[in-house]
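# nightly structure sweep
# worker-07 picked up a monomer target from the shared queue
# config: single-sequence mode, recycle default, output format = structure tokens
# input follows
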Amino acid sequence: MPAIIPATEVRDRLSAILDQLENESEPIFITRHGRARAVLLSAQLFEALSRPRAVSEPQEWYLVSQASLARIWDHPDEDVYMWEDGEAV
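# output follows
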């Protein structure tokens, strides 16, 4: 389970928090005034999440397209953007 730590605690315990990130594979959420404001990740986890993931199998393309269509059909007036310009469809 990811840790949730106030910003003031991060400031006071940064060295220990960095050690915690190295030893665990979970992110640490940093809060300010009780609301999440940032997330700390280990360098290893960040690199793993940043690697491009190719959808190479036709079945995967089909599943991605069906999920996208389902989103449009379920919410035709909300949150649907065109890839090219970011404008609402």
